[in-house]
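Here is one chain, start to finish.
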Amino acid sequence: MAKEKKSKKIVSVDGISIGVKEDIGLSLGALLGQESPKNENGIEKKVDSEQKIKNSEQDILPRLQKLSKVMLRRRTSGFGGKTVTQVTLPNECNIELEILSKELRKGLGCGSRVEEGLIFLQGDICDRAEAWFSKKGVKKVQID
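Its structure:
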């Protein structure tokens, strides 16, 4: 004896139907009662987080070229016996460390974090970091 498929109940409230095989065109902002930014035609404009990241990355590259010196140092104490590479920038630089840390993470293929004004890269990768900074236009990269 064959079982019959149960049909889904269709619920409709204020023009929104749930249970129908159509996509619901309702944004999370509309559900939370917040308006999305709209362009001049009144159509909702999507805010692209990737575009914001690209803009901030483009801002950081000219600043890297102006750096006079970057210091790289291998450290193991306080990291559970693991070796990390510490990146120290001059005090007068105005580079956002979080953005630079993300750039290093993508460029070197390693993990990174920012602590107390220093960037820590996972692993013993001083030579790769030196090559990356030189490629980006840093004048002097010193390894301790």
